[in-house]
Amino acid sequence: MIKAGSSFSHNGKRGTIGAVISLKGVLYAVTVSHIFRGERDRLTVDGNTLAVTRILEDHHLALIELPPGSEAEITEFGSPAELELAKLINDTRTIHYCRIANSGASLLFLGFQCHDMPGPEDSGSPIVQKGKVIGIMTSATLDTCMGFAISSKILRNLKV
């Protein structure tokens, strides 16, 4: 089943789906765009070879249309609670200590414990509070133990 936190393969590397959404009745996997060269880049999701459908440059997101009949779980979004704990979750690991330091209109600012930081393959992972996705991890800075995520506010308002 394809869902938030599921892995995909692209150019021999693992990537993570941050959310699954429905736009006009079509299911899309959503992840960060910086791991792709552009639209039509190929990736493997749940054994299927798919292509990046659309790059949303303004939001640093990539949409991947899922084939009709795909077994997928649509992501439930929440609103970030500042100064509260969250988790970074994907199918290979969970980082339990992730604090929402600040929440802007489009970005979340995250604080991690310096000994448990996200790695490059965690990019695109969902950030979860109270069982709901509040953002998609986009980058981290190791020297400050801080990270950034695209806010669920953006994800809830996507239109194609």
Automatic annotation (TrEMBL):
Annotated InterPro entries: Peptidase_S1_PA
Domain of life, per lineage: Archaea
Species name: Methanosarcina thermophila
Protein's name according to its UniProt entry: Serine protease
